[in-house]
Specification:
Two copies of one chain form a homodimer. Chain A is of the alpha/beta class and 267 residues long. The first copy, chain A, contains eleven helices and nine strands. In chain A, helix 4 runs parallel beside helix 5 and helix 7 crosses helix 10.
Chain lengths: 267, 267
């Protein structure tokens, strides 16, 4: 491929552009984004040129959708008439089923591969874009693609292939559930005005995610509600089980089992 | 005071001895502990002498109970006939009501002040004892004491006065609830064998506590079951509220409220 268009030049899209360059990509990189993001991206040399989506799509061999999920869905609705026949469209959205379904319905003249780089930073925006953001991190693809895969490896990410449904079920448990837990715990602690007097690392670690901006979560909840509901139900059932076991020797087995799971997660 | 006896010379008791020394205490420090802990404590110069509890108590102006909660309760049952009249007994247990109640029933010849230094380390044992462990950390006392308070300040801790009931209610929410959450989340994630492929910082941060040894938690659960049950009930109710709000605009308010609470906890 000779030209890539990045729609949404923020932390993720900007980092993908920088990572491609670092990995040896010599073609043209165009950006589709807000005026402020475009200005910062041009100033940092992250993109070569800014264009509206239809013009960017018309000249691109690859289209990388790094907008919020709602923006990705809207882009998919708009892109098909404008793409080069046979171009590759991929995305970096945090949920996959809704996006892959939409692409199947809306994209006919190009091929679509769903993607989710499990990488990030506390700070957002192209100002914090980083060519090494994906290094050593998992990068989920929802289907195989002989052109895309080598580049994902070249930017240092670890390829993981999952169906959209599998992906969404796993991130519901490993990412969306932790967010809701942190939000709920911060709320409960907030009902005790003196809690800060005795709060230690446990309370601080578990409420850190509660500061996450709602904007990104709104789209995640609306596109992954069912797996999240299932994960919440399983978690609440487990908590009720521990609650009933506060006075019981089965608590020790529950601790041992959880400790083994926590260890396995770190392997 | 001229002599202190530390019952339980582990991370906490050993650190208290080292912190007293650093703060200028020149008297005798005796230790009551397991043979292995005593050997390590003598080798590091943490204590001057090892004695059985009754002999240590007989010669001590202060008795510092730094055993696990069950050991503190057993010590309180045994100490009264042996203490110097008017001596101070204090403790470092993670729950307070059961301990303060037991002291009120069992200690008549000395005075008792419940204590909980909110300090710790990942590694336990007197080998990791540290004169600066309490520096900048809250140190809860359940009653005022003109002799004890200045030393708590001299070792660099921040004095917090709470009734045993208030203390136990607050730590149920800020410490015991986070532990059970982490244990439950690790268990739920453990049901997904592929979770490690996509687990990011959120899953790792929230399951770290799940590796905690059950021994220390067993005593905490049995001496603080009611506040923990109340905290679990409030947390589960909040999660059910978020679950019902997955499709509702009230979720944004819940996020904003939790973010504000998380921020307040860090002030």
């Amino acid at each position: 491929m000779n030209s890539v268009s990045i729609a949404g030049v923020g932390l993720m899209g900007g980092s993908f552009a920088l990572a491609l360059r670092k990995a040896g990509f010599r073609g043209r990189i165009t950006g589709v984004s807000s005026p402020a993001a475009i200005e910062a991206a041009l100033a940092r040399g992250v993109i070569d040129e800014a264009l509206p989506l239809d013009e960017a799509a018309a000249g691109a061999d690859w289209i990388y959708l790094a907008r919020p999920i709602g923006g990705i869905l809207a882009s998919l609705d708009a892109l098909d008439p404008h793409v080069k026949p046979g171009a590759l469209i991929t995305d970096a959205g945090s949920t996959k089923r809704a996006i892959v379904d939409r692409a199947a319905a809306a994209i006919h003249r190009a091929r679509f591969v769903g993607g989710h780089p499990l990488a990030g930073k506390e700070s957002s925006g192209v100002e914090h874009a980083d060519a090494n953001l994906f290094r050593g991190r998992p990068y989920v693809l929802t289907s195989r693609d002989a052109e895309l895969e080598p580049w994902i490896e070249r930017i240092g990410a670890r390829l993981v292939f999952l169906s959209p449904e599998e992906h969404d079920r796993l991130v519901a448990v490993t990412s969306h559930l932790p967010q809701l837990i942190s939000t709920a715990l911060a709320s409960v602690i907030g009902t005790e005005p003196d809690a800060a007097q005795v709060a230690g690392p446990a309370a601080l670690d578990l409420t850190r995610l509660a500061a996450s901006p709602y904007e990104i979560w709104s789209d995640i909840f609306s596109t992954n509600a069912e797996p999240i509901d299932t994960a919440l139900a399983a978690f609440i059932a487990k908590l009720e089980e521990l609650r009933a076991a506060l006075h019981s020797p089965t608590m020790e087995q529950a601790f041992d089992q959880a400790a083994a799971a926590a260890k396995a997660l770190r392997r």
